# Entry
Amino acid sequence: MRNLSRRVIILVIALFVGGAFLSFAPSTEAQPAKGKKMPLMIAGSVPGNTPYIWTAGVAKLINKYLKDVSVSVQGTVGMGRENVMLCQTGQVQLTVVSASAAYNSLHGLAGEPKADLRVLYAQFPAGMQIAVPKDFPGTSIQDLRGKRVSFGPPGSSSYLNSSLILPAIGLKFGDFKAMHLTTTESVAAIKDRSIIAYCMFTGFPAAAYIDLEAHPVGLKLIPFSKEEIAKVSAKYPYMGEVIIPKNTYSSIATGTPTVGAWDTLCARSDFPEDLAYNIVKVMTEHQEELIKIHPAAKDSTAENTLKGSPIPLHPGAAKYFKERGLMK
# Structure
């Protein structure tokens, strides 16, 4: 009887210890199943605007040609600090970023938090598009002094670039009745004339401005002078003159000079090199499909990536371009 009791006790102990090991062993269910697609998230921009549509097009291309990943797009307030930090903190794996956000976060300038991003591909040139009603009599940003102007919400590309461009030309937010509205709010406010202008840093055309142009208030763009552009470029070498082409908006028949730079698709420097390589390969070989999604993608080329990148290339992108003979 005593021996039986000892065997029972030993069995109970064995089951308890074994159960403990089972409880603390790694769960095989937590590991990704073999053959399961890797989820990737891209931080885009304001849903419906040019950068967001372009980003959604990139996601579509990657999903079509890279069968081992599943890409989706996250809407954001713009391509500034929010996008940078979403990628830097690992909440997304890819991001579209304005040149100012990319450059200043890499170098820790202009109050931007440090980040370690690298360029995969050029998006397109973006510029400061200052929209006013078609009957606004002014012809310069100086004519907006003291008036209600929206510069976009904090964290957006429009806000960041405004905060850099204005001081370079002797202005500051305090010279205006500055508002920090979203794109949707800003365009609605111009329509009901509760603000006079919206400064949006984005690619051409901006869907929000096409919408404004169709409204009775109409659309007029305020240009930058050569002197103003030179001052900005002297302070921020990655910025320069960009012309918003004539007929970008049907009612504006002349080109509009402005301050601009290249927006880019980026990832952290530790993003897998082989995956970066394959994404760049897909974007280069299937650009025509991206152009069908948005015409701004005509500028999304390997050559423009090398020409316009405000920060270093990701090693995977550099490897692809070297194989193509585009860089040494």
Confidence is low (pLDDT under 50) at residues 1-32. Residues 2-24 form the longest helix (23 residues). Strands lie at 38-43, 69-74, 94-97, 117-132, 148-150, 177-179, 197-202, 220-222, 240-244, 256-268. The chain has two domains: 38-125+262-323, 126-261.
